[in-house]
Amino acid sequence: MAQGYQDAERRIEEAWQLQATELTLRNLGLTELPTTIGTLTQLQKLDLSNNYLTTLPEEISALTQLRDLDLFSNSLSALPLGICSLTQLEVLDLIENQLTNLPEAISCLTQLKKLDLSNNHFTSLPVVIGDLAQLQVLGLHANKLTKLPAEIGCLVHLKELDLSNNAFTDLPVAIANLNQLQTLDLSRNHFTDLPEAINGLAHLCKLDLSYNKLTAIPAVISSLSQLQTLDLCANQITELPELIGSCIELQELSLSRNLLINLSAAIGSLTNLKVLDLSQNQLSHLPKSIGYLTQLQKLYIERNKLITLPESIGGLSNLQTFHLYRNQLTILPESIGDLIQLRELFAYQNQLTNLPGTIRFLTRLEKLNLSGNQLATLPEGLTVLCEALSSLLQLHYLNLSHNQIAQLPEAIGALTQLKELVLVCNHLKDLPASIGSLTQLQFLYVSHNPLTHLPETINGLSQLQKLNLEHNHLSDLPAAIAALTLLKELILSENKFTVLPTAIGALT
């Protein structure tokens, strides 16, 4: 007899002796459940998750006090008729099984509040699903459903409905009855529009329509006055219409990976927005009204075709994360200095040749990535950055790789909180002595430069764990490198060493 089965029998016996109300039999490799489970008539919670059960014994029907039954990740192809005896059941987890249908007996579970049937093989739901009148959460993710029965409208207490990763193209009119619904996940289906019945979802706060076949934002969305989160990413939407301005409670809006060419000025009406994702579209400009989003904390506009940003961008006084990489920007507006809450600025792979002097006002900046630009093409760009560095005292990540920088300023030493410095693929022949002041630095990448030597002050990098110096012109290392006692990785390939540097011998 398998060890797991014996363990299960032992635990059941102990639970019976102790009159326990909870029992865990998860991860025992069970292919069947001991019939002695029927002796635990006092049991309220039973965890059978992560086993290999293909059936449940009829003795399960004796557990009339059971409130929580977890069958996650088994191999059940059907539920026993005895399930109808579990009339006190409130939570039933059947995620990741082999179920294709539900027995009519499921209608007896009138106290059920949460039913999760995700990751099974359902092609339809029985009409008796409507008898589960107390249901608040229904999970149907990753099945093979194409439609819902009209009886779904009887679940008037439903708060969360997950229909993601199925094959839906429409919803029944009865969906309008779910006026307590707060979260509706329709992602990864085949919707081209939404039915008018959606306007009955007066309390809907979160709607996910990502990965569908929408070519426009459904007009009915404008009637969802309580909507706070709207995800429309990975569709084929070409414009943001005026109607979006009606969703004044929106806090998160994602339109990433669409075909957006223009944004309506109505975007400025969404003054409660905290997160706006417009990445991977075809935008060449932003409306001035974007500056009205004074509550915005995260703005993602990377991978578009932006050439400039409006000066009104400075109105985003609460912005903390700003991703604008992989555009065609040649300059940043002076008003960027007004983003005094900014902590993360990723502007890499643009065509920046200069930086506004106002960048020095971003004193809360922690991560700055300017790689893949042309900051040394015009001397002013690097000069401004150098002057700004001494103000960015909270910076702990700085990436200046793939520019044309020939010399780093001594001001780099002012970045005493810096933990990672990336200088790959530049024209550096040396590093400033002040580099030794970066006492918190853990990662230093200076590969693919023409470095000929390192400063003795390198010994100040007492926290350094990784130093990448490959593809340079080094022929020796300073003795000071022996002070880097925390160094775990030193990369020296493709240099001009003829013998192993003696300093390496001191590194333990």
Automatic annotation (TrEMBL):
Residues in Disease resistance R13L4/SHOC-2-like LRR domain copies: 151-234, 386-467
Family annotation (Pfam families): LRR_1, LRR_14, LRR_4, LRR_8
Keywords annotated in UniProt: Leucine-rich repeat, Membrane, Repeat
PROSITE patterns: LRR (PS51450)
Assigned GO CC terms: cytoplasm
Highest taxon listed in the record's lineage: Bacteria
SMART domains the record matches: LRR_BAC, LRR_RI, LRR_SD22, LRR_TYP
Protein name according to UniProt: Leucine-rich repeat protein
Source organism per UniProt: Cyanothece sp. (strain PCC 7425 / ATCC 29141)
